[in-house]
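User: Structure please.
Assistant: Input sequence and predicted structure:
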Amino acid sequence: MYPRCLSLSLLAVAVGAVETGTDTPTIIITADRHESTLERSAVSVAVVTRDDLHDRGSPTETVDWFREQPGIGVFARYGGFDGGVPEVHIRGLDSTYTQVVIDGIPLSNPTSIGNDLSFGFLSPAGLQRMEILKGPQSGLYGSRAVGGVAGMQTIRPTAHAEQQASVTGGSFGTMAASVQATGPITKDVGFAIAVEGLHSDGFSATTPDPEGNPKGYEADSLDRLSYNARLEWRPSRETLFYAAAMGGTVEQQFDDFYYDSFTFATLLDETANDTVGKNTAFSNRFAVGAGHTDDTRDWAVDLARTTITTHNFTIAGPTYFGGPVPDPATIAYRGDDVFTSARFGIKPIAGLRIGGGVDGTWRHGSQDRSDLGLLWDDRERSTGAWVQADWSATNVETSAVTRIDNLSGFGNHVSGRLAGAVMTTDQTAKFHASLGNGYRGPSLYERFGSERGGFTYQGNPDLEAETFIGYEAGVDVRPAQGIALTTTWFRTNFKNKMAYDFNPFTFVSSRTNSAGKSVVTGAEIGAEAIDIKHSGVDIALDYTRQRSTDASGNRLAYDPQDRGGIRVTARQSPTNRTQTWESIRFERTGPYFSGANENGRVDGYNLLSAAAGVQLDRRWDLSV
């Protein structure tokens, strides 16, 4: 059951000039790592802005940016206010196969199971725009970019001083606040900064109460504080130098569990004094770079260092024949990676762009326990180079890219992507198709990680990289102003999928490559109508139907065959300075399995959400 909740948001915007400052774009994340228009993209790209989230009541979690998109599913694991460990699935592949890129720089966690970053730990502070690129994209982004790429862009300096503040309150003792400011320092130097904080008493993921009342169970609280800052110097209109920093801290409680070593039962510690189970994470990223763009060429360089430390306070060991709850322990995961890249592009003739680049990542991960000491401490390196060619004509777009990567211990991997689109003469319809292959190399944790106690795990240094090939074909139609229809068929085949393997003789789990081929295939549909007949009514619809099977013929976890929804928003303008709006969303998710080998069936569910608000002139916005 899903507890009912209510939130109230208040937004204040102060503009320090009569004219609104316009953002000055820097290096924008796009499907082909250079600027292009969405309408002419040869691959499937979904664009989400902060304005899009406004109609949903301005949600407070980064994972909410992925919702209501065809082909994308968001699932809560282990419950709690923020979903515990929220999963984002792009075309049936989980977060392990999604490359997160923030302001052009990949973000990952060297100590997580698959190098993926927990979206529950990723703060939305300063986030302004997201581009979600679907399907295998290793040709541009390397390992892990096989389900898709989530390119996030944060706030930028503005031509005039602007400030914004918001306060949110809601059910379960939830309070959130954020402030951000942008503007010039001198004629050529500008700044942007954002700070965000959130607290929620939360609710229990295990309580049977439909309202979320713990009733003797522990409520799982959440505390988060984060920041994002950027400084830019533009000596000319075409050239940019920047320095940026982002990071924060998160403390997240969860319902802990432990194992009975003789019955193999998983036991939840469902007591009111279960205060052991929680995660705390500390992250920081510092980046510098430069770029230049003019009519005939562009180039950019970036250098960034990211550190992530996670402390897991958990029950340490197993019990025997239902004995007492084991003693707690603290497990510390420490990750550090350095990323650098250089890329370029030239336009030798009209309509043709040739580009490429090189990049490298050096990762370091370690894990230790308060009762056992250091468990593992290892490093890895990955370097890559790519070249691409894009040709644009009046009614045709084509793109070709190839990339070679070298991952320490695994040699070279070659990947690529071909994509093309044909537009009708009046530009109201676009037919597009693409073919791409990719790979995911084993993470440090999968190769060298170690767990002791209730869950015993040992890394497998003999793992091989997973390989993928994906296809898509679709049509986008814009028959009239404000109306858009999209339909895309897709298929992804992958081999050597990594999965857990439990040895009943040693009681140790490890990761192994599965023999055979796994497949995800399906279709996604989206429709949008804006301001229908000037009525102030918007309608948006999304639907995905897909089918997945692993090498054994079982459905993949968190993969409902059917998922979709519809949102209706109405806007009114009672006065010249006031606008009111109401929005309602109904969605349906079909049944799925929460575990491998079709274990843990979850029944399908319906979800109804609503939001409403009023905007008072340019400065105040109230929503509920």
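Residues 444 and 607 are 38 Å apart (CA to CA).
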